[in-house]
Amino acid sequence: MPLSSSLDRVLARISARYQDDPYQLLQMLRAVQASYSHVPQAAMQFFARHLGVPLSQVQGVVEFYAFLHETPRGRYDIRFSDNITDQMLGARTLMQRLCERLGERLGVSAGVPRGDGAVTVDLTSCTGMSDQGPAALVNGLAVTRLDAARIDEMADLVDAGIALEAWPRDWFAVRDNIRHPGPMLELAMAPGAALKAAVARGAASTLTELAHSGLRGRGGAGYLTAHKWRFCLEAPGVQRFVVCNADEGEPGTFKDRVLLTRFADELFEGMALAGFVVGARQGFLYLRGEYEYMLPHLESVLERRREEGLLGSNVIGAGFDFDIAIHLGAGAYICGEESALIESLEGKRGQARVRPPFPAVRGYADKPTVVNNVQTFIQAAQISAMGAPWFSSLGTEKSRGTVLLSISGDVPRRGIFEYPFGVTISEVLADCGATAVQAIQIGGPSGHLIGASEFGRRIAFEDMPTTGSLMVFDWSRDVIAVVQNFARFFQHESCGFCTPCRVGTTVLRQLVDKVADGHASAADLVEIEGAGRVTRALSHCGLGQTAPNPVLDALTRFRPAFEARLTSANGDPGFDLDAELSEARQMRGKEMQHGG
Ligand code: SF4
């Protein structure tokens, strides 16, 4: 199909901006999506030809990411965050209200552009604003603290065709909500302090210092950071890379959002520190698409650091080069897994690689790559500046330092809380003012759902590890509805690459829906356990391996809530499949007796 000359010019400009680099394909497609509210077939054909990659690969990328579309979205693309905490704050009711307001003349239904092409209203996975929801993205930009008045005004702005820049600025304000700062959040570190200390100490001694600190990766697995950096350093090869995983997609987590806002200098310093230690010259910050609004701020910090000699050539005059580029994600939870993130950085579908080899040995562009998350790099910088004892004196023997918690749900004080590892869940709940707590989900949907009998447990790698999310549910909440939200989330986010996860997450979702609808029998609970075990054991990557956690936890710890649904919750005789079957069996038995 011949390209229209205007599209042709735009595509050529986009491709040139990204230096015709196939690894930048995702960024190019994002730019097309932003300009045309979709990625036209002609654009895919252009990039396939121009970059020398198969058309099927380009198409596969467009299909993979939730923020890319083959057909046009509305000029205003509004997506409500569908995390359980947003739901609890009324997100779905507000979305319904917006659809009704916008659909007074032309009908609006979720996910379908209005007849005049002006607007699409839809749901999306957690946008990282659980402390200030209900939240939404409007053309990729975060809007927080939605309420009925804002929804009505939003409908008027859309109908009047008012440009987003003229919408009320306070709608786009994102608060940090730091409620309980600790040593990490309170440390004021001068830009360059960590790098100067590292250069004075030398790369090898800096790595030793990091090892003595006991710092473990804060992204989930808890791998010793110094070990990871050493593997990368010792892996064969000349070129190495440093990657920061800022794809904070675990529902209910928002600590990286705050760190990126408040501690961008420390983060970039930690990445440069890793570059100095392992001998890398290039770093990448992989920023989740939902945090696009931060891009100008982060780019300005990078630019200032270049001007100050803290990035670029001959960093701090110490004779090493290191710079950082920012790469935006496009709505795929799986890209939080480090090998999937690297695939995405290379402009491909974010599919988890077979490991080993691990990224430290073969990562970005098949070269040794350090991948750590935002908090880990910041803490590495702080350790370099302050020394290992400053850090290792905090926490427990196996979990040194502090943990950052993103707390949301049924609590009066939602936000960021920092504690030395080893703090009990009860202490945390008291600090955030939680009362009448029925359950908490710790570590996001891939973590664990626990009840009050376990609130004495300690948050630490050796007891209750967490990636930082802590969602609180009081006794007014329906545990089944919570689990249903998580089951839907995992089914939606499964990349479909391997059968156990693709089928397992679908089956689990269907079974949980069946329980929620009051149509399940005891046999379905057995089936949930079986499907959960198989999905956990046979899935290819962490997503599938952890997807059954919430439902299996709930079945173990909140079984009465499930059993109560096997009959109707409103007191009417419910649909009890086992009872129905047993009645049928008895009748059949009688028939057989009569017949015999
Ligand atoms: S486990 Fe799920 S997310 Fe991971 S590769 Fe398999 S299908 Fe994809």
Automatic annotation (TrEMBL):
Belongs to the complex I 51 kDa subunit family. InterPro entries: NADH-UbQ_OxRdtase_51kDa_CS, Nuo51_FMN-bd, Nuo51_FMN-bd_sf, NuoE_N, Nuop51_4Fe4S-bd, Nuop51_4Fe4S-bd_sf, Thioredoxin-like_sf. It comes from Niveibacterium microcysteis. Its cofactor is FMN. Residues 480-525 form the NADH-ubiquinone oxidoreductase 51kDa subunit iron-sulphur binding domain. Coiled coil: none annotated. It holds the Pfam family 2Fe-2S_thioredx. This is NAD(P)H-dependent oxidoreductase subunit E. Keywords: 4Fe-4S, Iron, Iron-sulfur, Metal-binding. SUPFAM superfamilies: Nqo1 FMN-binding domain-like (SSF142019), Nqo1 middle domain-like (SSF142984), Nqo1C-terminal domain-like (SSF140490), Thioredoxin-like (SSF52833).
